[in-house]
Amino acid sequence: MKFKRLAQMLLAAIMVTLTLTAHAGFTMIEDAIEASTFSLEVDKEGYGFIMARNCPSCPEVKVLINEGTRIMQNQKSRTVNHLRERANLGATIIYNLQTRVATKIFW
Fold it and tell me: How many angstroms from the chain centroid is the CA of residue 46?
């Protein structure tokens, strides 16, 4: 009986420790916008920004674009010109929360 009680206490202690450890290291570094439409301003070098919102009543978010932003359609690389054509058709924009730079734009 003592062994069973000791085993239960040990198991409970391990579960609490694992739970606290799992929650301690979680930090959100990216977010996404599933924009039905967006506006785009980009120069010839690929630098610029997208203005987009998650829903019609959601606040507009400005996300920067640079040479590191990957633009993808069906897992194939696309150019900024392809992205311009998508402005009225929408896209998913993944961006860094701290820098507000788009890491990937896809549809």
Answer: 20
DSSP-H helix ranges across 1-95: 2-24, 80-85
Contact 42, 65 (CB under 8 A): yes
Q: What are phi and psi of 50, to 5 degrees?
A: -120, 140
Q: Which residues contact 97 (CB under 8 A, 6 or more apart)?
A: 28, 29, 30, 31
Task: Give which of 58, 57, 50, 45 is closest to 101, Cα–Cα.
Answer: 50
What are 23-43's pLDDT values in tens digits? 556 788 999 999 999 999 999
Q: What are the extents of the domains in the chain?
A: 30-106
